[in-house]
């Protein structure tokens, strides 16, 4: 049977630590972001009032009619832990001197108090554990910027040649992408979702960011104006570029989906387009009677 750390035994006085509701008024301001996983501490760690211990207090605030106390889980009368009981206890290894505890409660003012089991086992520590979620959140934007997101494909109608003054339809195609990585020993899934597009038409004109990626037109409609089309006013060679703006989300150990603050801005391969001019001439020659006439 495992002996408890002497330092921890001293702090909990072996007989249980009583926490009155008035001292935990700020301990339950809304839900706490946590989910079960043995490899990560996702709780909002806080110092238990009137102690030097860290964990989570169960009080619902200053109007809570109960007082609470901690007792060491699976403890025998001689201060040792019972092996058959400890098999299902959490490891409590996220900081020094971690011990699994039970919370008990009694109506405030009861004399003597009548203690009943309330919750547990929970881990209590003599120093504040690392907030792995906060550390990941602080680094996730950098990781997102390093993620190899595939750029959108860029198309042009007509292309690679078009006419001056004619609407040239540009369109992009981007996909949602998922990436798996490890951060601080935790399994992270990053999802990149295309959210907006910026078109640079290569003649000093840009459009965006716009939520419309455009779309290909049927052959019989090429030349129509679209949300992403452009009419060039000069002839020549132009290089079109596209930047796709991706929103990011991530999960830790398959937990809740969390937003990534910054977007990823991914540039596609450039598209070369040549703009020509069209010249229209009217001729009155009859090529049957004068095969050598202008325009014949």
Question: Could you give the topology of this structure?
Answer:
Elements: H1 6-12, E1 17-19, E2 46-47, E3 54-55, E4 66-72, H2 83-86, E5 99-107, E6 116-124, H3 132-146, E7 153-157, E8 161-163, E9 167-173, E10 177-183, E11 186-200, E12 206-210, E13 229-231, E14 236-252, E15 258-267, E16 271-276
Parallel strand pairs: 8-16
Antiparallel strand pairs: 1-4, 2-3, 4-5, 5-6, 7-9, 9-13, 10-11, 11-12, 11-14, 14-15, 14-16
Tally of separate domains: 2
C-alpha termini separation: 107 Å
Per DSSP E runs of 2 or more residues, the count of β-strands stands at: 16
Q: What about the largest sheet?
A: 7 strands, mixed
Q: What is the string of helix and strand elements?
A: HEEEEHEEHEEEEEEEEEE
Q: Which overall shape is indicated by the principal axes computed on the Cα atoms?
A: rod-shaped
Q: Count up the helices.
A: 3
If you consult CATH, what is the topology of the largest domain?
Immunoglobulin-like
CATH class of the largest domain: Mainly Beta
Radius of gyration, taken over Cα atoms and rounded to an integer in Å: 34 Å
- In terms of per-residue confidence, which ranges show pLDDT below 50 for 5 or more consecutive residues? 1-16, 20-42
List the quaternary state of the chains: single chain
Structural class: mainly beta
How much helix, percentage-wise, in residues? under 10%
Q: Could you give me the name of the CATH homologous superfamily of the largest domain?
A: Immunoglobulins
Overall mean confidence score, pLDDT: 82
Give the amount of beta strand, in percent. 35-45%
Name given to the CATH architecture of the largest domain: Sandwich
């Amino acid at each position: 049977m495992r002996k408890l750390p002497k330092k921890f035994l001293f702090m909990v006085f072996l007989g249980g630590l009583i926490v009155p509701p008035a001292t935990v008024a700020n301990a339950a301001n809304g839900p706490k972001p946590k989910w079960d996983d043995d490899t990560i501490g996702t709780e909002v760690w806080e110092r238990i009032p009137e102690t030097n211990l860290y964990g989570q207090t169960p009080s619902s605030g200053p109007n809570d009619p109960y007082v609470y106390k901690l007792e060491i889980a699976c403890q025998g009368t001689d201060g040792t832990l019972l092996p058959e009981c400890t098999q299902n206890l959490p490891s409590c290894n996220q900081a020094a001197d971690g011990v699994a505890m039970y919370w008990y409660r009694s109506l405030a003012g009861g004399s003597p108090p009548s203690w009943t089991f309330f919750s547990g086992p929970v881990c209590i520590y003599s120093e504040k554990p690392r907030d792995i979620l906060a550390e990941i959140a602080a680094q996730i934007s950098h990781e997102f910027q390093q993620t190899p997101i595939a750029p959108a494909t860029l198309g042009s109608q007509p292309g690679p040649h078009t006419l001056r003054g004619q609407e040239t339809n540009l369109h992009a195609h981007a996909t949602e992408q998922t990436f798996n990585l490890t951060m601080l020993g935790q399994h992270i899934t990053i999802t990149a979702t295309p959210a907006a597009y910026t078109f640079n038409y290569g003649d000093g004109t840009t459009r965006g960011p716009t939520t419309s990626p455009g779309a290909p037109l049927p052959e019989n409609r090429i030349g129509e104006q679209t949300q992403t089309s452009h009419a060039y006013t000069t002839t020549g060679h132009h290089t079109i570029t596209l930047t796709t703006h991706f929103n990011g989300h991530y999960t830790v150990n398959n937990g809740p989906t969390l937003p990534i603050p910054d977007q990823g801005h991914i540039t596609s391969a450039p598209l070369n387009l040549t703009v020509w001019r069209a010249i229209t001439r009217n001729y009155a020659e009859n090529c049957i009677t004068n095969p050598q006439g202008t325009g014949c």
